[in-house]
Amino acid sequence: MRNRKNVFFHTFIGIPVEIAKSSSRALIGVRGRIVDETKNLLVLETENGLKKIQKTACSLKFHLESGEDVIVEGNKICFRPEERPKKMK
Q1: Distances 41 to 1, 46, 67 between C-alpha atoms, Å
Q2: What are the strands of the beta sheet with 58-63, ordered from one edge?
Q3: What is the mean pLDDT of residues 21-34?
Q4: Whole-angstrom Cα distance, residue 4 to residue 38?
Q5: Domain boundaries, given as residue ranges, for the chain
Q6: Cα torsion for 19, 73, 69, 10, to the nearest 10°?
Q7: Does residue 11 have a pLDDT over 90?
Q8: Distance CA 63, CA 71 (A)
Q9: Is CATH 2.30.30.210 the classification given to domain 7-87?
Q10: HEC assignment per residue over the chain
Q11: Is 85 within 8 Å of 8 (Cβ atoms)?
């Protein structure tokens, strides 16, 4: 189960997320489930379809299965999913 301590060592696909801060005001408050992740982008499935979100432009609020909410600066997670465990140590 993902929690605050180990969320960075898992893939983000499937996690519900909300945009907490963004350089684009139109993105603030957007909610959805992560369906794909690349080095610089997250693809969210929202009520209005798919949205591509740049990681560097946002602060993300992850809603974890454990009931915790974790806010993460997007520029701190700009790695490929398979590289994240090595670089987050």
Answers
A1: 24, 15, 25
A2: 49-54, 41-46, 31-37, 16-22, 58-63, 69-73
A3: 95
A4: 22
A5: 7-87
A6: 110
A7: no
A8: 9
A9: yes
A10: CCCCCCHHHCCCCCCEEEEEEECCHHHCCCEEEEEEECCCEEEEEECCEEEEEEHHHEEEEEECCCCCEEEEEHHHHCCCCCCHHHHCC
A11: yes
Asked if residues 60 and 19 have their Cβ atoms less than 8 Å apart, the reply is: yes
Tokens of 87: 């670089």
Token digits for 67? 């009931």
Confidence of residue 28 (pLDDT cuts 50, 70, 90): very high
- Output the six-digit token pair for 45: 């499935």
